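CO-FOLDING WORKSHEET

Operator: S.A.
Ligand of interest: coenzyme A
Run index: 174
Mode: holo prediction, single chain
Checklist:
[x] sequence pasted
[x] SMILES validated
[ ] output reviewed
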Amino acid sequence: MRVRPARGDDAAELGRALKVVVEEDWLALEPPMTAAELAAGLRTRLDEGQKLLALEDDDGASAGEGPLVGLINLRPTRIDGVWSIGLWILPGHRGKGAGRLLVDAAIEARPPGVHKIELEVWPENEAAIRLYERAGFQREGLRRDHYRRRDGRLRSSVIMARLFPDGTPPPPDK
Ligand SMILES: CC(C)(COP(=O)(O)OP(=O)(O)OC[C@H]1O[C@@H](n2cnc3c(N)ncnc32)[C@H](O)[C@@H]1OP(=O)(O)O)[C@@H](O)C(=O)NCCC(=O)NCCS
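OUTPUT RECEIVED:
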């Protein structure tokens, strides 16, 4: 497995893979969504300058030729110095350390001045919560019945974050 920056011409392939994960209902994105809609969303993110890192299954393929089986998105929030992540991996490629590879790559790709990376996860998503805890993220809170889904259900989310002291500028000289 290899992590590389996603490009505009990856969007169609990533959109098809993302559709599979959206249908599992682990993400904020809600089914039904077409692969084309999801690809368009990914292109918009790239155009906005968000960082998208793709997971390539390079088993037996030269670099840049293997299928894309996962993605992590690193983007600024409205709070200065706080960025957020979201990620997914196709079902057949989970449980082999690829999630950790993506999280570590996103941390590495954070711009200077980022003092915190945050995320939200469904409380039932034990695999994801475990991955984030292993990567140094801590629980900051629970949003109770925060998101109304299309079927009318309200879902809670856990807020997790990791601090990066090197992203905190020194205090101004007095
Ligand atoms: C969450 C997800 C990205 C994890 O990726 P992954 O490649 O399976 O994770 P890794 O193999 O790198 O595992 C990282 C840690 O999580 C643990 N983990 C993985 N799957 C697990 C599971 N089903 N239950 C409990 N722990 C699990 C691993 O044991 C590992 O911990 P360890 O270092 O103590 O062994 C993947 O399951 C996924 O894409 N799920 C669907 C989409 C999703 O939930 N995205 C996150 C939304 S917030």
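REVIEW:
The chain has a mean pLDDT of 96.
Helices lie at 11-22, 35-47, 98-108, 126-134.
[x] output reviewed
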